[in-house]
Design brief:
By secondary structure, the chain is mainly alpha-helical. The protein has helices spanning 4-18, 27-35, 39-51, 67-90, 95-105, 111-120; strands spanning 55-57, 63-65. A two-stranded antiparallel sheet has the order 1-2. Helix 1 crosses helix 4 (67-90) and helix 4 packs across helix 5. The chain starts with a helix and ends in a 16-residue tail after the last helix. Bound molecules: zinc ion (ZN).
């Protein structure tokens, strides 16, 4: 089971390694800066993620997600975007309101809940911002 912080690190790593073709983050500092945390905190968390086999630190301290880590990160993005769709389409929240609420809801663990929500929404392909929802 991952903590909310661990999930946010995976999401950040997925984001930082999806821009362009970079498959690796250049070290702890880049990640710490992105997450607005101290490099020492980022380092501690990276050790935990490495122990759980979710990331690899390859040459020169570069960080990449393992396949498992990448899958976990995509699942969090999937939940986030399904919640945004629900908040926007069903509960009628504004475009600029949904992200912050989805940041909290994405950490709910129940897969059954997200699958039923997905079905309730008739399996949306994109979120309210037009971003693709990763498949289950
Ligand atoms: Zn969002």
């Amino acid at each position: 089971m991952l903590t909310q912080t661990e999930e946010n690190y995976l999401k950040a790593l997925l984001h930082l390694t999806s821009d362009g073709n970079e498959q690796e983050v250049t070290g702890t500092n880049q990640l710490a800066k992105y997450l607005n945390v101290r490099p020492a905190s980022a380092n501690d968390m990276l050790k935990k993620l490495k122990d759980k086999l979710l990331i690899e630190q390859v040459r020169y301290g570069k960080i990449s997600l393992t396949d498992v880590g990448r899958t976990r990160a995509l699942l969090i993005i999937r939940k986030h975007r399904i919640w945004e769709t629900f908040l926007h389409d069903i509960l009628k929240f504004e475009d600029d309101e949904v992200h912050e609420i989805a940041e909290q809801l994405e950490h709910i663990k129940s897969d059954k809940l997200i699958d039923r929500l997905d079905a309730f929404l008739n399996f949306p392909k994109v979120d309210p911002h037009g971003a693709e929802i990763p498949g289950s």
